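Worked example 2:
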Amino acid sequence: MENIRFYLLTTFLFHTCSASTPNFVLLFADDLGFGDLGCYGHPSSLTRNLDRLAAGGLRFTDFYCTSPVCSPSRAALLTGRYQTRSGIYPGVLYPGSRGGLPLNETTIAEVLKPVGYATAAMGKWHLGVGANRKFLPTKQGFDQYLGIPYSHDMGPCQNLTCFPPDVKCFGLCDVKTVTVPLMHNEVIKQQPVDFIDLERAYRHFATSFITESAKKNQPFFLYYPSHHTHYPQYAGPEATGRSLRGPFGDALLEFDNTIGNLMTTLENTGVINNTLVFFTSDNGPELMRMSRGGNAGPLKCGKGTTYEGGMREPAVAYWPGTIMPGVTHAMASTLDILPTIASLAGAKLPQVMLDGFDMTEILVNQGKSKREVMMFYPTDPSKEFGLFALRLGKYKAHFYTRGATHSDTTPDQDCSVFAALKAHDPPLIFDLEADPSERYSLPLMGKPDLQAVLERIMKVKGQFEASMVFGESQISKGSDPNLEPCCNPLCSPKPSCCKC
């Protein structure tokens, strides 16, 4: 069997080297739960295109993000490093944040540029704007950018239209800040953004980028961090009222439609067989929104928590002729995407401490993962508390547990905002293969095999925490209203005058 695997891997590498350099399309959903897609068991979601990718590609059952909230998760995805290293903690960045993803961090786009890639991003950035817009994607390796530079609820939305013909957005969103802008590269094109037309703009942008790259025979990297399905949900006329799940389902359907458009473009330009498409999500569902907040399936809790529902995500890898259809139970993470892309592109890795592993063996041969361990940091990591949880093989140990506002309103009281921080010594240990819902902690008394597992877990934890160097917190630098993006910076009174 090992000889066969070696032959397949050698054949693949020969094919990769002899063929044109592969393209990469990275799809990143927002607040999407493990149980939200049809291919992951949801009975009423309309996700035909994602389901098609899963049927024709490799679907992961044990794939993790690094944080149960947005900004830190995105930092880890793009750098292959835990967010504690880059300083994207605690919590998330805001429109006027002074900090952002440090420019000395190396993103996937910056890894690919030296080997000739065209790079573009569209959608939710959420890694800072900053003074002189120094933290935007165009300063972080991307040739082009179209999108909202942070969460689309970070601006007044009560009078904005989220569904046609004129259904106002649900809730108030953030007030006393500028309305949400649509930016092209570093220029505001529209403020407030037109949610109804936003996905059409993204589809046009992606089609143009892929088509131009294909015409030039230039390899490309397209990063699409979607706003869907984050609150407040929105959708255009092609998706509104067409799902069975109400506003959440319509938003998810629109996201799926955009993915379908991307796949059609890849087919029409003749590059689909030379393109790795990878899909996952930034964190678990915002259960506090109830039916508008997504579904974690069988997993415990959701966004804001270090339970499985907060950080275990749907993930699919699709590459016709290279990745065979199937399901893998190999443990993997968003941290592993940068080293995998670098390996496939023949690019050099950044000369820094990376936390990711090359997934090529998983993707090509559905083989074993190089990842044995996954670390779980809370939304507000600190040296004092260290890791909240750690997964080693099939076992997960919780050293601390805590609920979250984002996961409130569920019947499980462990998820509630009123579930205060609780230390566990010895830690709670769960067998995630037998009990992925984390319902039944394993007794240690009289179990020498589990005692041995715990000893190994504590050793791994100690080694990791001793090696972790916390970067300067970018979020603790605070905010300045003057840094909020305004299309008419000299207008008055702000922020209400920022419209164009």
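Confidence is low (pLDDT under 50) at residues 4-18. The first strand starts at residue 23 and ends at 29.
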